[in-house]
Write a structure and sequence with these properties.
10 strands; 355 residues; 6-stranded mixed β-sheet; 2-enoyl-CoA Hydratase, Chain A, domain 1; 4-stranded mixed β-sheet; 16 helices; alpha/beta
C-alpha cells in the first residue's frame, strides 16, 4: 500500500508539471458579447490567469472590434476562478525563450504594451474587476482602464525588482502619480496592498464586496444603451453600499510621511542610507526587503519612475520596451526566474510528498 501511495503521488506530481507547461490557446481567454457589453475572461485559473502572447493578441483584436461596434457600450475584464484576476505575464515562457525564440521576447513585450495603451485610449468605458491577485501584467490590463473595481480579496503588487526586471506595463506612468512617494515605495519594495487599501491607494476606482460582484456585473450587463455616467452611477451605488473595512485606516497611513521623505532621494544608495539612519522597525524591515532585490533592477526602476513622472503613457511604454529588451539580454532576470521556479517547484514537491 505504501509503495502504491508513493507511485500515486509521483504520478500526481508529474501530471502537474506536465500541465504547467501546457496551455490550450482556444480556452486561455473567453471573449463574449453579453447584453450591452463585451466581456473578457482571463481563463487560466490553474496558473492564476497569467498572460500569454496568444491571450494578448486575442484581447487586443477583440477590443478593437468592440470599440467600433455600436451595439457594445462597455467592456468588462475579469479573471476565472476566485484566486486571481491576473498574476502577471508568463515569465517562465519568457525566460525559456531567451535562447530559442528571441522574436517572441520582442513580440510579447511590444504587443503587451500596445494593448496597455489601447486600454488607456479605449473609446468605450472599460471596467476591470480586479478580484484576487493582481500583479505585473494583470495590472497592465486593468489600471489603465477607466474603472477598476477591487474587493476584500484583491491583492496588488508590482514585484518585478525581485526577479531582475522593473515594474513595466506602464508602471513608469501610473506609479509616480500615486500620492506622495507611495508609487516609488511600491515599485522598489514590491509591497503588497490588500482589500480596501487597493482602492485607498488609488489603484482601484471603486470597492465592492466580493459577494456582490456577480450582481454588479449583472446590473451592468442589463443597462440599456448606457452612457459613461450611467455606468459610473451603478458602480458608485455598489461602492457606497460596501461597508467592509470602511473605517479601517490605510495600512501605510502612519508611515506615509516617512515614506515620502525616504523615497524622495534621487539614488538607491541614498534611499538605503535614509532607511538605515531612521532605524525604526518599519524602516529596517523595508531595508531588509530592498537588499534582497536585484541591485540593477532597483536602479533601473528608480530612474524609470523619475523619468516617467513627466512623460505621457505612450512615451513611457516606448521607454519601457527599450528597457525590457535590455533586461532580456542581461543575467538578473533569467537568474531571478530560475530561482523563483526552484522555490515554487520545491514547495510543490514538498507538499505532495508529505500528503
Amino acid at each position: 500500500m505504501s509503495r502504491f501511495n508513493s507511485y500515486k503521488r509521483t504520478n500526481i506530481i508529474l501530471q502537474h508539471l506536465k500541465m504547467s507547461n501546457h496551455t490550450d490557446a482556444a480556452a486561455e481567454v473567453l471573449l463574449e458579447r453579453k447584453g450591452c457589453a463585451g466581456v473578457i475572461t482571463l481563463n487560466r485559473p490553474r496558473f492564476l490567469n497569467t498572460l500569454t502572447l496568444g491571450m494578448i493578441r486575442q484581447i487586443y483584436a477583440q477590443l478593437k472590434k468592440w470599440e467600433q461596434d455600436p451595439k457594445t457600450f462597455l467592456i468588462i475584464i475579469k479573471g476565472a476562478g476566485e484566486k486571481a484576476f491576473c498574476a502577471g505575464g508568463d515569465i517562465r515562457a519568457l525566460s525559456e525563450a531567451r535562447n530559442t525564440n528571441q522574436k517572441m521576447l520582442q513580440d510579447l513585450f511590444r504587443e503587451e504594451y500596445i494593448l496597455n495603451n489601447a486600454i488607456d485610449s479605449c473609446q468605450k468605458p472599460y471596467i476591470a474587476l480586479i478580484h484576487g491577485i493582481t500583479m505585473g501584467g494583470g495590472v497592465g490590463v486593468s489600471v489603465h482602464g477607466q474603472f477598476r473595481v477591487a474587493t476584500e480579496k484583491s491583492v496588488f503588487a508590482m514585484p518585478e525588482t525581485a526577479i531582475g526586471l522593473f515594474p513595466d506595463v506602464g508602471g513608469g506612468y501610473f506609479l509616480p502619480r500615486l500620492q506622495g512617494k507611495l508609487g516609488y515605495f511600491l515599485a522598489l519594495t514590491g509591497f503588497r496592498l490588500k482589500g480596501r487599501d487597493v482602492y485607498t491607494a488609488g489603484i482601484a476606482t471603486h470597492f465592492v464586496d466580493f459577494e456582490k460582484l456577480g450582481m454588479l456585473e449583472e446590473d451592468l450587463l442589463a443597462l440599456k444603451s448606457p452612457s459613461k455616467e450611467n455606468i459610473a452611477d451603478v458602480l458608485e451605488t455598489y461602492h457606497a453600499k460596501s461597508k467592509t473595512d470602511q473605517d479601517k485606516p490605510f495600512i501605510l497611513e502612519e508611515h506615509m510621511d516617512k515614506i515620502n521623505s525616504w523615497f524622495s532621494a534621487n539614488t538607491v544608495e541614498q534611499i538605503v542610507d535614509n532607511l538605515q539612519q531612521d532605524g525604526s522597525s518599519f524602516a529596517l524591515e523595508q531595508l531588509k526587503v530592498i537588499k534582497k532585490m536585484s541591485p540593477t533592477s532597483l536602479k533601473i526602476t528608480l530612474r524609470q519612475l523619475m523619468e516617467g513622472s513627466s512623460k505621457t503613457l505612450p512615451e513611457v511604454l516606448i521607454m519601457e520596451y527599450r528597457l525590457s529588451q535590455a533586461c532580456m539580454k542581461g543575467h538578473d532576470f533569467h537568474e531571478g526566474v530560475r530561482a523563483g521556479i526552484l522555490l515554487y517547484d520545491s514547495a510543490f514537491l514538498s507538499h505532495f510528498m508529505t500528503c
